Amino acid sequence: MANAEQIALDAKLSFDASQLVDSHERHKALVALKDALTTAKADILAANARDIEDAKVQVAAGKMSSTLLKRLDLQSSKSKYDDMLQGILDVDSLPDPTGQVTYARQLDDDLELHRVTCPIGVLLVIFEARPEVIVNITALAIKSGNAAILKGGKESLHTQAAMTTVIQGALSTTALPRAYIQTVSSRSEIASLLSQDRYIDLVIPRGSNSLVRSIQNDSRIPVMGHADGLCAVFVDESAVEKKAINVVVDSKTTYPSACNAAETLLVHEALLSTLWPTLAASLLSAGITLRCDPPTLSALTSSPSTSSHAAFASLVSPSSPEDYDTEFLELTLAVKAVPSCADAIAHINAHSSHHTDCIVTESDDNARAFSRGIDSAGVYVNASTRFADGFRYGFGTEVGVSTGKTHARGPVGLEGLVIYKYQVRSRAAEGHATAVFGTGEGQRPFLHTPLPLGDAPF
Amino acid sequence: MANAEQIALDAKLSFDASQLVDSHERHKALVALKDALTTAKADILAANARDIEDAKVQVAAGKMSSTLLKRLDLQSSKSKYDDMLQGILDVDSLPDPTGQVTYARQLDDDLELHRVTCPIGVLLVIFEARPEVIVNITALAIKSGNAAILKGGKESLHTQAAMTTVIQGALSTTALPRAYIQTVSSRSEIASLLSQDRYIDLVIPRGSNSLVRSIQNDSRIPVMGHADGLCAVFVDESAVEKKAINVVVDSKTTYPSACNAAETLLVHEALLSTLWPTLAASLLSAGITLRCDPPTLSALTSSPSTSSHAAFASLVSPSSPEDYDTEFLELTLAVKAVPSCADAIAHINAHSSHHTDCIVTESDDNARAFSRGIDSAGVYVNASTRFADGFRYGFGTEVGVSTGKTHARGPVGLEGLVIYKYQVRSRAAEGHATAVFGTGEGQRPFLHTPLPLGDAPF
């Protein structure tokens, strides 16, 4: 196998070459990809069966989790493979994120400026067991015009090899270079790839928190992703009980291991003997462990509706300070009383992972203060944190979720895979020099007249 | 002085607090800043005089360049101080980059999603001697709603201290926190500040290449800036002589030490005995040193119009391979012949710093190939690379120039200092949970109806 620098350089050269390929050729490549994967279904599933055999041995030996084995599996679910193929067509049907003019000015007679969206360049996508991610990312890369290097887990070695053969075979029948999509599987390649900042423009880690954090720490290349999803719900003084129950239970229970699930519940202290015990009883009935600070705990102990709850003894316990910085990823909530909306905002800004946080309130003033004051990608009023998702936002697809503060934030759709370039074109007989512009004698000012955003010049 | 972590934390808390401050208060803060600096003009110029005294001693001792001394000087030019004050009003008059809705969808009855632009958070701006940058960045930070930590050079110690007193005094009369703008001057603070990625969201280095490169290498915090400005002009086979001369001479001579000045000239080999000697004669007459590869050199030697030029012997010499990777920042051009537009594109993609590159051509096909194929922030047709500038693009101000491929690229205006957050609000009586959406029985689909982009909900 070529070394990391060669892989990165090949990707960069493929990207450069692909810039001259028209976008309808990218559509044709997506169709070719789908057709090739349809034809190769039996081969890929056979390769996947080998990975599953190997994985079962690892699971039996206690060296692999059964969750990982399940993620690896492309065949137990009847529709998984076909859903993967449909995903290619879904991506194909989305609007082209490139070639959009987002700023245009007439600078002078016969001198035009257009800012045009374009691909970022070379993506390095690092993920764990799920082999369908290979196809998903390949489709997104082709659609957005970016070359990609995909690094999957060693657990899916055979599936990945079979898919790569099919993907590169399909690419070789298109206008895109064969090395436009490359896959690597050895874990030792990661560190060398992360140092290829000359050729790789963006790293997208999709996997465990520790994987993401180690990449964020190790690479000079910009990273788009999230290490943590520590979301909070604040139940404000004015909250209505049924809304609070509806929003908190949904935020916590619908998919506890998702990054947009709630981990912390803040309760206004005015509600400790009223709404809080009722809400807590609903949470206990939903099987949620509550780790409470002294005020919220004592309120539950002294309320008959909770202290007599069958699950009280097993699910309610005092919290420790670390609980408010913990992403539980299971049916556990850290609970804390706060004296005001301002204190809730301060707590969340200090402890949340800036992913998605929610206020349950009837007060417009507090809804506004929370929405403006919380420094997170998602600021929600009376809605479950679980809405934070690219599909739910209407993006059609999701590249990932970013808790960064630059480039793209929150759920990221195809827009997150593009940047822009400035195209300046002179049509004057002598071309355009800058020396003639200015306030001096014989010099002229810039026009800066807005131009229509419609079509990119090239 | 507080340590770096305390400075960064104070900035973060100031930013969080400022999120609840209305944007018209930011306007009032800019006016207060301008008034305070007007009143304190004599004090600040007196402090600046002390810095200049100290600097003159350093220059005399050969420990400082006279260029640095000149940059430090706020008083020799009559209008410099007043221009700085006018700059505050100019920034104030620009459109508010925050609070803009860039995506909005009705997700369900009574459930709305708005993507609203907002400040990034805490900026760390590192610059060298020019003290007016303090005021310029302060104005940009206030306008865009970002808190800022400013690290100037030790040469402007007294000026910076006097300005800081005035700026913080002005802030204390406004709704913004006093620590919203902080300045630090000790060089030893840089490394500690660059490690405060928990509190600082973006580093903007404005200074020498080595400063910028060392920051890009040392920090986990995203960096917006450019280490190099290695721009190229390609004179294509179809180029018209007067355009080529106009564009190349302007690109090279109007400000040779600027990042948007041309450093490399590529000449189509079909022009070696025709356009090239005429262009070279113009370049020699403009005092430009030409470092030529063998074909371009031998063409000049064999052409009477250049070989007989008075400056030929002193200004024309063979190039070395490193010349094509060198940002000369003076009146020197590296010149190379290329056999095709495709070769010019490949050379530029391999050697340029992805800042701004230009083709001089009469061919629409080659203009298109160049504009699409060059992976740079600016791709120009028949126009000088020196147009690459925020003011010239019509941004009203320039935060810097980015050669990065994410977030912001090319000349960066106020838009580069904002990101966005997603505001989701339910107005339904029971709030909104995700569990009711889906394709199962009794579940409903998302609407995803576009909403007007006008007003942010909060």
Automatic annotation (TrEMBL), chains A, B:
Pathway: Amino-acid biosynthesis; L-proline biosynthesis; L-glutamate 5-semialdehyde from L-glutamate: step 2/2. It comes from the Eukaryota. PROSITE patterns: PROA. One of its GO terms (molecular function) is glutamate-5-semialdehyde dehydrogenase activity. Residues 6-283 form the Aldehyde dehydrogenase domain. InterPro entries: Ald_DH/histidinol_DH, Ald_DH_C, Ald_DH_N, Aldehyde_DH_dom, G-glutamylP_reductase_CS, Glu-5-SA_DH, GPR_dom. CDD domains: ALDH_F18-19_ProA-GPR. Its EC number is 1.2.1.41. GO terms for biological process: L-proline biosynthetic process. It is an enzyme of class 1 (oxidoreductase). Keywords: Amino-acid biosynthesis, NADP, Oxidoreductase, Proline biosynthesis. It holds the Pfam family Aldedh. Catalyzes the NADPH dependent reduction of L-gamma-glutamyl 5-phosphate into L-glutamate 5-semialdehyde and phosphate. The product spontaneously undergoes cyclization to form 1-pyrroline-5-carboxylate. NCBIfam families: PRK00197.1, proA. Belongs to the gamma-glutamyl phosphate reductase family. This is glutamate-5-semialdehyde dehydrogenase.
